[in-house]
């Protein structure tokens, strides 16, 4: 059965089938079913036409699927732009909500789509690749190069010194 562009299995319970929508979990699905007066053991194929219409109307008023994904991306981008702790954690690919990082941070790094590499000094990074200047400028914009050491205890040069360093390297 198609409902708002999502294919739902007919043989499943309604509360389970509703979890096929991005943005609806089991708890929200149960609340939706109770609001529309659908029994918890009712299957999707057993719904009447008025119940399906009420369900479609209620779901169309919620933020779901691609619209919800867009809102989440916009929120993350907002945190990154204003330089909050959450935004910095997203930039680095670390867990955002206080989880440990010594071990068990693999999932957050996978979800952010990048592997984390550790740079030991700005000078070594500068000589390592031609895109090093872009990388360092991104880190400065994210607020990681504000002091002589970043939060990992690794030494970085202030931006003024980096610009002087770039000019010396480019003259070679």
From TrEMBL:
Alphabetically ordered keywords of this record: Ribonucleoprotein, Ribosomal protein
Keyword Ribosomal protein: yes
GO molecular function: RNA binding; structural constituent of ribosome
Gene Ontology biological process: translation
InterPro entries given in the database record: Rbsml_uS13_C, Ribosomal_uS13, Ribosomal_uS13-like_H2TH
A GO cellular-component term linked to this record: mitochondrion
One Pfam match: Ribosomal_S13
UniProt similarity note: Belongs to the universal ribosomal protein uS13 family.
Listed name of the protein: 5693_t:CDS:1
């Amino acid at each position: 059965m198609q409902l708002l562009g999502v294919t739902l299995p007919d043989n499943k319970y309604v509360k389970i089938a509703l979890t096929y929508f991005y943005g609806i979990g089991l708890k929200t699905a149960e609340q939706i079913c109770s609001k529309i007066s659908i029994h918890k053991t009712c299957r999707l194929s057993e719904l009447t036409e008025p119940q399906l219409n009420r369900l479609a109307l209620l779901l169309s008023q919620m933020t779901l699927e691609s619209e919800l994904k867009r809102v989440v991306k916009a929120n993350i981008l907002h945190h990154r732009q204003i330089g909050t702790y959450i935004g910095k954690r997203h930039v680095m690919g670390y867990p955002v909500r206080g989880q440990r990082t010594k071990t068990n941070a693999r999932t957050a790094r996978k979800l952010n789509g990048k592997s984390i590499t550790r740079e030991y000094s700005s000078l070594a990074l500068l000589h390592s690749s031609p895109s090093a200047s872009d990388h360092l400028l991104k880190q400065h914009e994210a607020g990681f190069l504000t002091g002589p050491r970043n939060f990992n205890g690794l030494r970085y040069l202030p931006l003024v010194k980096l610009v002087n360093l770039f000019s010396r390297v480019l003259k070679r």
